[in-house]
Amino acid sequence: MRIDTDNNNVVLTDVRDFDVNHIFDCGQCFRFNRIDENTYMGVACGRALRISQNSGDITLFNTTVDDFNDIWHDFFDFGTDYSEIKDALARDDVMREACRFGGGIRILRQPLWETVVSFIISASNNIPRIKGIIERLCESFGDAIRFEGKTFHTFPAASVLAELSVEDLSVIRAGFRDKYIIDAANKFTSGALCEEYIRSLSTPEAKKALMSINGVGNKVSDCILLFGLNRADSFPVDVWIKRIIEHCYFDSEQSIDTISRFAEEKFGSLGGYAQQYLFYWARENKIGIN
DNA sequence: CACCAGGCAAGCC
DNA sequence: GGCTTGCATGGT
To answer: Nearest nucleotide (C1') to the CA of residue A126?
Structure first.
């Protein structure tokens, strides 16, 4: 990959294993929206971004090289070799096809706090509504930022949400999840949970710490570990993953525990990547629904 | 109208 | 311990 500047844009060439549609449509990230077939726009890490792709060429509009190096390089996980991961995972027909179909997926390194709240909101919910709730949360309580003549909003800090009551949150229409968001904000603000401490823990210990938050159970904590803490040894088992593993590897209904142990055995430390390839492939092709 | 949506907590045994 | 049920809201 080469990094150049063109006017106010950062231009990447010879980029491999990268597809904006795969990255932003595989359900890991809720704040980026499709502008056209090659372009997405959104907010992450306190910055707005417009990113466009033409095969191996990527343009980050109105972005400095410093911001690319300081923020977007890590956000897009450019330090990880996804070809190697796909080679290791593509050991059977199912995984070969899933890795081929979503070959441009990368697991974004999203801010921990935003990931905690986003996946609390995801519980028993659908992706369009999750995005709507998060958007209202940011509009109501985040900071306004200007970008390309438009106003965007950052994700509100835990300390900001900790000042709110459950009633204050009613404007975002999160339903029964509002009290969970407040509890998470309180734990992150009071020191009961500290990001640096959580990051220092092993994956099982970090999971236990995250599950002390009301509204964070087995599945949500696995998503936080994977998307917010870059723990690829975590394999979130949601209804989609459960159905596709059953459909492709068992041909009968299995317990969530059985699915988890199967994934641990089969994918090990690459489970999180496998989960994303499978999730995207299954959803886009409606596999395992019947 | 009933049913469900990337689950979870609380209340039952 | 495992199993059931209620949960807010919005879309079919």
So the answer is: B5
